[in-house]
Amino acid sequence: MLLFFGVGKTAPGLLIFRDRQARNMTSQEYIEHIWPAVEDANSSAEGFSQISKDMIVVLGDNRDPPCTDKGSIIRSRTYVEFADEIENAYQKLGDSVEGSLRFDEIQLQQFLINLCGEHFGLKLTSENSDFYSAGLDSLMAIQLYAHLKGTVL
Predict the structure, then answer these.
(1) Of 94, 120, 138, which residue sits at a domain end?
(2) What is the pLDDT of residues 12-55, one digit of tens each?
């Protein structure tokens, strides 16, 4: 079972209630397992509503959402019951601990070019490249900020 979250937030997320058959998988293994389906859904979604790996919260197989008698998730109660997990996802996205890497200006420019290529598949040719013309959208910008904050001092 899954539930989208993030109305009024900087990025959408996904709560995944892990199936008991996947109890031996780590959260990261589970995300990698479902990632092709997420990518497929992302391909037909607007950029601002796409789900990133950072915003997928995989819960243990012993955690179930509140449901109706027919088995539908009761969204409002689920958001309240899993508020801590949802908030932790946003904390990791934007408020990660400061990083420790230090660069001079030229090194930082090259780091950004490489990061955008490796993490987002953007082809930036120089420090003067236009991020948005290369395909950077608002969700990617938030992820880029979070990554930089977590790695660069």
Answers:
(1) 94
(2) 999 999 988 888 899 999 999 999 999 999 888 887 788 888 89
Looking at residue 57, its pLDDT comes to: 96
DSSP 55: G
CB 65 within 8 A of CB 81: yes
7 lies in the same domain as 38: yes
Nearest to 3 by CA among 53, 54, 76: 76
Kindly report each contact of residues 34-41 with a partner whose C-beta sits within 8 Å and lies 24 or more positions away, as own/partner.
Answer: 38/14
| Same domain assignment for residues 17 and 88 | yes
SS (H, E, C) 135-150: CCCHHHHHHHHHHHHH
Asked whether residue 115 is assigned to any structural domain, the reply reads yes
Is residue 99 included in any domain, yes or no? no
The pair of three-digit structure tokens given for residue 16, joined into one six-digit string? 């995944």
Q: Which domain holds residue 80?
A: 2-94
Task: Give the CA-trace dihedral at 17, 46, 138, 57, to 10 degrees.
Answer: 0
